[in-house]
Amino acid sequence: MISNDPLISRKQELPLKDNTTSLFLKVIISIAIFLFAVTLAGVLSINSMLNAWNNSILGSLTVQIMPINNANHDLALKQTLEQQNITVEFLKKLPEVEHVSVLSDEQLEKLLKPWLGDGIDISNLPTPRLIDVKIKKNTEINYTKLAEKLSEISPFASLDNHKLWLDKLIKFADGLKILALTILFLVIAITSGAIFYTTQSNLGLHHNIIEILHIMGAKDTYVAQQYARRDAWLGFIGGCIGLFFAIPTIFLIARLAEQIEGGIISEAHLSPFSWMLILALPLFSSGASMLTAYYTVKRTLEKMM
Length: 305
Description:
Number of domains: 2
Largest sheet: 4 strands, antiparallel
Shape: elongated
Helix content: 55-70%
Order of helices and strands: HHEHEHEHEHHHHH
Number of strands: 4
Structural class: alpha+beta
Number of helices: 10
Strand order of the largest sheet: 2-3-1-4
């Protein structure tokens, strides 16, 4: 019985199904999408981390009041607190400052716990007092002049605007992002190359069939469309397989990052838009495979025929 569906009959003109190259392309694309998804998640997480640093750290500074040494512990603590109060009053009067808060003993104990261990009573130790200063948005401060004024107000006060070490962290994060983008580029290049060479090999195997199709009036575009449809489907299936393994890996890496106590890595996260980009990777691999196969066939047939 002859089928009345012309599309089904046209798809059978080139034996592209159940080809050995199909399995190879599925494996290559699934591995590529796995690496692409994990690396892309890393790039997007680094971007979110940099934004979090800019919002939380660049808009603040810390003033430290060194403890006053005195044989009388109570008197030394009283004098240290007096220096702290004088500094707080000075900071509150600055027009660039939005909010000033003094870290409590509990907060200081939490900060010192990783170094001193559990069960340490910091009330018996000459610990510095920390003042957190929130800067108004779109406001610039001359940190050199501010440090000079602080030293005049209190010789025990010192300024830390986080800028020096934050610049180093940003450079490190930018380096990681460049490395990740390089990996993405290499993944795309290697996958495109695999599709290019497998498609060329397949064209060589079906050279006689393609010549017959040309004699019958088929154009290069018609042959290229068949390969494009085949590779688009392989790209989508391979992308889904790669994404299937990539998502648990991303969650595992995120889980490991959460275990870093008090670390800046905890600022990294994936937004809903980032997840949309990651989940759309099978469509990306499908489109990229389709275009690569289409133009590979067109270019190769122009040289062969």
